[in-house]
């Protein structure tokens, strides 16, 4: 806005879109992520700029943000004892200091605070700066090399950042969280658990069925034995019509 005074001061805001995943610096218009872990795709954000004049004028535009699901194992976390909104405001200067002291091109992947509430943006005195470095051939610098260089240059980095923030600065290398398991690995684990559960259920069914079989037919054999014994001990037996008849002994037994 070319106007002077309040008419030239702009405030930026999210009009609609994924306000839970993104936020905006109202003074600079810089958009940053709040929580997009495990999400991928293109997000369309409606952004509004408004001046501070008596008759407030506004303008809107759509910003498309593409989140890539791929991840790098060379991302390094730098922990600063500064509020996250302060670090965001000076992120370009922080990047310049890191590039100067490390001697590589540095890209700020994300600025994060442990607290998820919006109020933490100005109340939590610790910010996590996730960075990745590239060499002159535009290749990723291994994370261990970046960590080593950060530790070696820690004193100089802190002194430079103190001038940026106008405050005492502590910069420490943190351990970035482990990358989440890939969908393929998760699917394999789930499938393995299901197969194991199915196998156990099948074995249990077979064992139970065998016990039932033994119990059923073992009991029938026992009943048959009892019936045979009763026939031998009793000289009378019921025929098919229910009448009693004598059991005749074979002739050779009479002899």
UniProtKB/TrEMBL annotation:
CDD domains: Cadherin_repeat. The chain crosses the membrane at residues 185-208. Its main location: membrane. It is found in: Membrane. Residues 1-77 form the Cadherin domain. Keywords: Calcium, Membrane, Repeat, Transmembrane, Transmembrane helix. SUPFAM superfamilies: Cadherin-like. GO terms for biological process: cell migration; homophilic cell adhesion via plasma membrane adhesion molecules. One of its GO terms (molecular function) is beta-catenin binding. Pfam families: Cadherin. One of its GO terms (cellular component) is catenin complex. PANTHER family: CADHERIN 23, CADHERIN-23. This is FAT4 protein.
């Amino acid at each position: 806005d070319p106007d002077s005074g309040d008419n030239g001061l702009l405030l930026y805001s999210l009009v609609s879109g994924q306000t839970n995943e993104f936020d905006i610096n109202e003074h600079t218009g810089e958009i940053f992520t709040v929580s997009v872990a495990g999400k991928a795709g293109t997000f369309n954000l409606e952004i509004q700029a408004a001046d501070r004049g008596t008759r407030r004028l506004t303008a809107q535009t759509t910003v498309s943000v593409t989140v890539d699901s791929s991840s790098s194992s060379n991302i390094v976390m730098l922990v600063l004892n500064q509020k996250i909104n302060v670090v965001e405001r000076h992120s370009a200067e922080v990047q310049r200091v890191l590039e100067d002291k490390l001697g590589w091109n540095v890209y700020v992947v994300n600025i994060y605070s442990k607290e998820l509430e919006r109020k933490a943006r100005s109340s939590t005195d610790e910010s996590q700066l996730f960075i990745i470095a590239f060499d002159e051939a535009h290749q990723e610098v291994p994370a261990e090399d970046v960590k080593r260089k950060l530790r070696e240059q820690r004193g100089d980095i802190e002194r430079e950042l103190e001038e940026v923030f106008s405050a005492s600065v502590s910069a420490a290398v943190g351990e970035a969280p482990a990358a989440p398991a890939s969908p393929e690995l998760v699917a394999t684990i789930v499938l393995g658990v299901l197969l194991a559960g199915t196998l156990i259920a099948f074995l249990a069914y077979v064992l139970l069925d065998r016990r039932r079989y033994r119990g059923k037919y073992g009991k029938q054999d026992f009943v048959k034995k009892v019936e045979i014994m009763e026939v031998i001990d009793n000289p009378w037996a019921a025929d098919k019509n229910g009448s009693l008849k004598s059991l005749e002994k074979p002739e050779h037994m009479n002899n």
